[in-house]
């Protein structure tokens, strides 16, 4: 996919509320302590988190963002941690994707969103280039939030999808690829499984196996992007995440969007950033 170059200086007015990866690595990203890495024979081990706090926090009321740090001891950064505001190069290189056209996995309602969790035992979908340079990150899961967690020039979108990737090194790092969704023509990618939300995973804890998902259909035609180092604003609010945000949205029909919003219609935490200067 070709990466467009940016003007010499671009001011991006951006507000984001990343609930990108609810919970810790394993709870929402892996579902297992050990996973295979993209390199044949390599293995990554990550700590397993107690899943008992999955339903402790939410986005509203007495379990909303202002209470997270007191509800979950490990989430102390939610009280004081703030996303980075940094200057970024306008062009950090072309993103490269090797996404499967025949992916297997499962849908999972985790109490905050609905994930498509990729089964990496049968092959890997990988991303590299841009700020990641030659280091390959492999896709772990895809989930969505409504309304969008980024606003661009003040515009908020009805939905946003996050493609969560893990690096293949001894100290794993996460990279989240964000795709904004606007109402319009139906999305061939969403058409593959969004209609299943209503009757297979509408309740917390429900799971449903999927086969033959074409991940190559997931992105808009123009994949130019903004990128920055930031933090997560859902528990545990860790810092040091690589964020990549496509600056052109993907379209989805109202019916496709409502398959998700009929179940979860408030799944974002908004923290405004005045501006990021991209040079």
From TrEMBL:
CC cofactor = Zn(2+)
Zinc-finger keyword on record: no
The record's catalysed reaction(s) read: hydrogencarbonate + H(+) = CO2 + H2O
Which SUPFAM superfamilies does the record cross-reference, listed alphabetically?
Carbonic anhydrase (SSF51069)
Q: What is the superkingdom listed in this entry's lineage?
A: Eukaryota
The Alpha-carbonic anhydrase domain, residue ranges = 55-279
Span of the signal peptide: 1-23
The portions of this protein that span the membrane are none
Pfam families associated with the record: Carb_anhydrase
Question: So what EC number does this one have?
Answer: 4.2.1.1
Task: Enumerate the PANTHER family for this protein.
Answer: CARBONIC ANHYDRASE
Similarity comment:
Belongs to the alpha-carbonic anhydrase family.
Name the job this protein performs. Answer: Reversible hydration of carbon dioxide.
Q: What is this protein called?
A: Carbonic anhydrase
Phylogenetic placement of the source organism: Eukaryota, Amoebozoa, Discosea, Longamoebia, Centramoebida
